[in-house]
Design brief:
The chain is an alpha/beta fold. It contains 7 helices and 6 strands. It has a 6-stranded parallel β-sheet, with helices on both faces. Helix 1 packs parallel to helix 7. The radius of gyration is 15 Å and the shape is globular. The chain starts with 10 loop residues before the first strand and ends in a 6-residue tail after the last helix.
């Protein structure tokens, strides 16, 4: 999206696996994708006020379990399915590294948030990230955005790792309700 009249837009940065689709391990084929039942309605609602991005760590690439072509194929399928439902994903960002690689793009580092801010005119102070790992919340906060932790995917497993005041939602629909109900959100 071009920056219209130099007005920066808010965004929601969505983790992929465990947040908008079921986490089924290292996906390498579109046929492995299963959306959560509430994903489409939640993203339609968010898309009314926000640019939407998918940001996904795919360490399976670094481990040789899948290729960037596999990831691109799965991401393309996700974006295409959402587009068929009237949902626009502005961009998709992938970190293909292992956590031990020391890269700059792995969540919770804010590389992709800053990239979206620069390339797409995103106002990070009015933006959010949604994900099922504590690093998804830290990813947002490290760039001045706000994080919403979902209990789907690995959410219940890692809940104890969250800090006391982290915003938590049962799933993507409740996360959208929280964000859309936030007076500063997207306006």
């Amino acid at each position: 999206m071009a920056i219209e009249n130099n007005i920066k837009r808010p965004a929601v940065f969505l983790d992929r696996d465990g947040t908008i689709i079921e986490d089924r391990g290292h996906l390498c084929r579109p046929s492995q994708v299963t959306f959560f039942a509430e994903t489409v309605s939640a993203l339609r609602r968010l898309n009314e006020h926000f640019e939407l991005f998918i940001v996904t760590n795919q360490s399976g690439v670094a481990r040789g379990l899948l290729t960037m072509d596999d990831v691109g194929c799965v991401n393309g399928h996700v974006v295409s399915c959402l587009a068929e439902c009237g949902i626009r994903i502005t961009d998709t960002y992938v970190c293909p590294h292992d956590s031990l690689d020391g890269c700059e793009c792995i969540k919770p580092k804010s590389y992709f948030l800053k990239k979206a801010e620069k390339e797409h005119g995103i106002d990070l102070s009015r933006s959010f990230a949604i994900g099922d790992h504590p690093h998804d919340v830290a990813f947002a906060e490290n760039a001045g955005a706000r994080g919403v932790y979902v209990l789907t995917g690995h959410g219940m497993k890692h809940r104890h790792e969250l800090w006391k005041d982290a915003v938590t939602a049962a799933g993507i629909e409740e996360a959208a309700n929280i964000i859309c109900g936030n007076p500063a959100a997207g306006r």
